[in-house]
User: Which sequence fits this backbone?
């Protein structure tokens, strides 16, 4: 039996348009909560049975009829009636499928609001589904991720999460932690008798196994993040190398201001593009040089931060300049400093350098990196560069059937915290510290894992999660 965590006022009837705004063949308006059957009864007539009663509807049913406001007929509709608990929110729900013109839809919504519904907040239907125990927090978040997925693999990961694969893994982990914690707390209850319900060596072994499982999940985040958000790609290089021009070319639109005055890309911008099923999240950075102005300095600081977080760095240089080899030292430094990232050296402005072929060969040797030669202004060499980008990250964005992936920063951070608490617990055991302290760390670890699936409910976390949903979801 699932207990509802909803406060009574949260059961009030809500309504929202669930389909995108604009002209379409059909649109859906959802309602949920106490009293939606009465509200629907006042505005709907079933064609084949004018004395049809929503209150007598069982399970879930579909009916065809017409809706009215106080002045008369509005539209022909299909209503889907879901009797609690057989609905998405587990409350009584009525969904109206009407014609998709914006005026019709808004009018029907207004009638529902006039009849007693309140306009739903973003994610409120899913929030209620979670609070009523229909799905856990991970599954609720997966719905949002599925809707916003931009690649097939991101979509598949979200579907796996929605089915509860990660939830099961975390529940098992939590169960084991809970057992160890319970034994320690029992010892505390019998503290005067100085008993040990579990030997400390055994406990340490168990915690070690749990730690390994946690670490495997934590490590999966890099892969999971790439699947969901795309390969974090940074275009770096000196001012005027052509970074903005290349960014626009890759994105196919005018996104950042291109200028011949060095230092005009003061901040960074981020956009995505998909090449052969791989999504790249591109960041254009401020030119890497000592900033002469305060604001430029800040841009450069942020650029370095972005570079340090990148999966792929496109290091762009102007091959037409006589000092083109000056960048080799920086590239070498990048290779050392950002060893987690893959680096592609891109020699730009080949159109201005008749001797670019020899220069590229020289760069190849000097950097030990296969250099891509392009003319961003003319769009030459772009396909080869994209191919090279895809091959550099091959495998990073592929979903491995059997693996459970962590794709959300929230989950990743909670897992890191849980793992840190376990580390603390192990250190305390090793230094023969009091049972109370060890139990405290285990309890913290347990709470962090619980926060992920929503076993431990935190209002602030719920607000952040559901605010990101659209209205009607
Ligand atoms: P950023 O400072 O690295 O972002 O460089 P921009 O993209 O603003 O480019 C600086 C200047 O170089 C602009 O005037 C561009 O039009 C020009 N430019 C960029 N790529 C090429 C290229 O391949 N060939 C030529 N001839 N000019 C280019």
Assistant:
């Amino acid at each position: 039996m699932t207990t509802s965590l909803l406060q009574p006022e949260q059961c009030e009837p809500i309504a929202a348009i669930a389909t995108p705004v604009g002209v379409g063949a059909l649109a859906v308006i959802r309602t949920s909560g106490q009293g939606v059957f009465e509200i629907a009864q006042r505005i709907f007539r079933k064609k084949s049975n004018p004395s049809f009663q929503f209150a007598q509807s069982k399970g879930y049913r579909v009916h065809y009829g017409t809706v009215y406001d106080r002045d008369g007929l509005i539209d022909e509709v299909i209503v889907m009636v879901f009797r609690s608990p057989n609905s998405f929110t587990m409350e009584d729900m009525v969904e109206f499928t009407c014609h998709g013109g914006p005026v019709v839809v808004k009018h029907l919504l207004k009638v529902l609001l006039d009849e007693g519904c309140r306009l739903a907040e973003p994610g409120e239907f899913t929030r209620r589904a979670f609070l009523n125990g229909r799905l856990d927090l991970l599954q609720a978040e997966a719905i949002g991720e599925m809707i916003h997925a931009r690649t097939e693999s991101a979509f598949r990961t979200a579907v796996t999460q929605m089915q509860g694969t990660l939830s099961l893994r975390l529940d098992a982990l939590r169960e084991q932690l809970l057992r160890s914690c319970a034994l320690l707390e029992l010892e505390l209850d019998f503290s005067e008798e100085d008993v040990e319900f579990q030997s400390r060596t055994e406990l340490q072994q168990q915690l070690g196994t749990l730690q390994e499982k946690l670490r495997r999940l934590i490590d999966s985040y890099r892969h999971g993040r790439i699947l969901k958000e795309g390969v974090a790609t940074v275009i770096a290089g000196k001012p005027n190398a052509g970074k903005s021009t290349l960014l626009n070319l890759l994105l196919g639109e005018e996104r950042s201001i291109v200028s011949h005055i060095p230092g005009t890309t003061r901040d960074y911008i981020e956009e995505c593009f998909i090449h052969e099923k791989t999504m790249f999240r591109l960041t254009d950075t401020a030119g890497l040089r000592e900033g002469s102005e305060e604001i430029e300095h800040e841009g450069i600081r942020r650029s370095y931060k972005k570079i340090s977080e990148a999966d792929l760095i496109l290091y762009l240089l102007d091959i037409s300049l006589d000092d083109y080899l000056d960048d080799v030292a920086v590239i070498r430094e990048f290779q050392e400093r950002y060893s987690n990232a893959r680096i592609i050296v891109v020699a730009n402005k080949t159109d201005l350098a008749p001797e670019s072929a020899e220069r590229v060969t020289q760069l190849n040797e000097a950097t030990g990196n296969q250099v891509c030669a392009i003319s961003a202004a003319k769009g030459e060499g772009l396909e080869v560069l994209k191919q090279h980008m895809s091959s550099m990250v091959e495998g990073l964005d592929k979903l491995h059937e059997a693996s459970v992936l962590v794709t959300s920063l929230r989950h990743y951070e909670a897992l890191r915290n849980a793992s840190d608490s376990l580390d603390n617990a192990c250190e305390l055991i090793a230094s023969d510290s009091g049972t109370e302290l060890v139990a405290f760390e285990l309890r913290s670890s347990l709470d962090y894992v619980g926060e992920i699936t929503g076993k431990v409910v935190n209002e602030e976390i719920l607000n952040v999660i559901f605010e990101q949903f659209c209205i009607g979801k």
